Amino acid sequence: MLYPRIIPCLLVHNKGLVKTTKFKEPKYVGDPINAVKIFNEKEVDELIVIDIDASREGREPDYKMIENLAVECRMPFCYGGGIKTLAQAQRIFSLGVEKIAVSSVAIENPQLISEMAERVGNQSVVVVFDVKKKSLSTKYELYTLNGTKPTGIDPIHFATEMQKLGAGEIVLNSIDQDGVMKGYDMNLINRIREVINIPITVMGGGGTLEDIGGVIQQHGIIGVAAGSLFVFKGKYRAVLINYPTPKEKEELIEQYFLKKWDKR
Amino acid sequence: MITIIDYGLGNIQAFVNVYNRLNIKTNIAHTANDLQGTTKIILPGVGAFDYAMSQLNASGMRDELEKQVLENKIPIVGICVGMQILAKSSDEGKLPGLGWIDGEVKLFDTSKINYKTQLPHMGWNSISPVNDHPMMIGFNAESRFYFLHSYYFVCHNPEDIMSTTEYGINYASAVNRENIFGIQFHPEKSHSNGIQLLHNFANL
């Protein structure tokens, strides 16, 4: 049977890996290739790497870096950052990347989602939603450019639009929860999950394996990503690349997934 | 020596890396000439059906590939959309497939899938080998691989099915007829199980 996915998400800034808090204060955590090598050994389910400089600086994706990472990855690899055109997306595919993540261009030029889906298949087109809760409201808003630019767009509505255009997955990233390690925004996840039937990966707030388990228990098949949890250890946030051992993962899956979701 | 067909559909290097680790030599075929004297072929694929077929048709390699596979009986494995184009046709596209394994490619019927999450079929799922073909050495019904697809291979001859996977229905996650193999999942991205499968192919 199909299993939920537990995914480290790495951010690239000035060619190094960083981890942010609420999309700010990037803290250097190491070298991207070295991290991929460690995650290979730990047999992670998937890996997401986002270049947080490319779109903000208005530059091309760093193809050399992407190629170096793709060559190293023995797990499915999703790359995001700076992709604006079909030609760029295809070039990145040819480097051995399985999934391509876009965010700001999905808002500026939604038609590109359809063009990409037609060319590379919708299973490989990922749209990242950077979402912030509106103050004094239960509503949410989409942001772009590393959480600096509010768009006025309601992510719930936008999710259905993206599905219609051919997106194969939505990565739901909570700006408010980013780096805080206090749990995922379950309300946001529930609301997006209700309106679409393409896969979702959620991100932002994962502080413990129990936080990940909670999302899996509620949603069954879902991708749960985390940054801080897999790069820091202890309350002083010492850098240590980590991931549940096969045994820890089996126990997590047994407790939070199979007990409720295994209908065999 | 394993020959990997480069027709512009990604993932080439991932296979090269796995075989490098296994100390098995590879070469990448860009032209028909590169296929001369090949002993094993991998037809990779990440992408849409029609795009894959049109790229293969435009590559100039198709005739030589057919000669190697259909006349010389060189073992070939198609991966993901590389498997799907072994069929005669696909719901995903209008172009005819290679038709080397009698079957067609269909879109999953989401009404049969229990989970709220439906398509694409994405993530780690198990395969059940249906026979003891050497390609399946080391695997049992708990062996998991990475899947990423919305369409699946329907074999017209059930004896061509090498393994099945459950996603709403039991479908053919690996197919085989004589020297021709198709694998729906991504062995090149499936950690140790994937390495084992690619090793099995090299050992045929």
Task: Tell me about this structure.
With 264 residues, chain A is of the alpha/beta class. Chain A is 38% helix and 26% strand. Chain A contains eleven helices and 14 strands. Chain A has helices at residues 32-41, 54-57, 63-72, 86-94, 104-108, 111-120, 155-165, 186-195, 209-219, 228-231, 246-261, and strands at residues 5-13, 16-21, 24-30, 47-51, 77-80, 99-102, 125-133, 140-144, 149-150, 169-174, 200-203, 223-226, 232-233, 238-239. In chain A, strands 1-4-5-6-7-10-11-12 form an eight-stranded parallel β-barrel, surrounded by six helices. Chain A is globular, with a radius of gyration of 17 Å. With 204 residues, chain B is of the alpha/beta class. Helix content of chain B is 23%, strand content 30%. Chain B is built from five helices and 13 strands. Chain B has helices spanning 12-21, 49-58, 62-71, 81-84, 191-203; strands at residues 2-5, 26-29, 41-43, 76-79, 89-90, 103-107, 121-126, 128-129, 144-149, 151-155, 161-167, 169-177, 180-183. Chain B has an eight-stranded mixed sheet with strand order 2-1-3-4-13-12-11-8. A three-stranded mixed sheet of chain B has the order 5-6-10, with no helix packed on it. The mean pLDDT of chain B is 94. The interface between A and B is large, with 47 and 44 residues.
Largest sheet properties of chain A: 8 strands, parallel, barrel
Mean pLDDT of chain B: 94
Tell me the fraction of residues in β-strands of chain B, as a range: 25-35%
CATH superfamily of chain B, called what?
Class I glutamine amidotransferase (GATase) domain
In total, how many domains does the architecture of chain A comprise? Answer: 1
Structural class of chain A: alpha/beta
How many beta-strand segments of chain B?
Answer: 13
Distance between the termini of chain A: 9 Å
Sequence-ordered SSE layout with sheet pairings:
The complex is a heterodimer of chains A (264) and B (204).
Chain A: E1 5-13, E2 16-21, E3 24-30, H1 32-41, E4 47-51, H2 54-57, H3 63-72, E5 77-80, H4 86-94, E6 99-102, H5 104-108, H6 111-120, E7 125-133, E8 140-144, E9 149-150, H7 155-165, E10 169-174, H8 186-195, E11 200-203, H9 209-219, E12 223-226, H10 228-231, E13 232-233, E14 238-239, H11 246-261
Parallel strand pairs in A: 1-4, 1-12, 4-5, 5-6, 6-7, 7-10, 10-11, 11-12
Antiparallel strand pairs in A: 1-2, 2-3, 7-8, 8-9, 13-14
Chain B: E1 2-5, H1 12-21, E2 26-29, E3 41-43, H2 49-58, H3 62-71, E4 76-79, H4 81-84, E5 89-90, E6 103-107, E7 121-126, E8 128-129, E9 144-149, E10 151-155, E11 161-167, E12 169-177, E13 180-183, H5 191-203
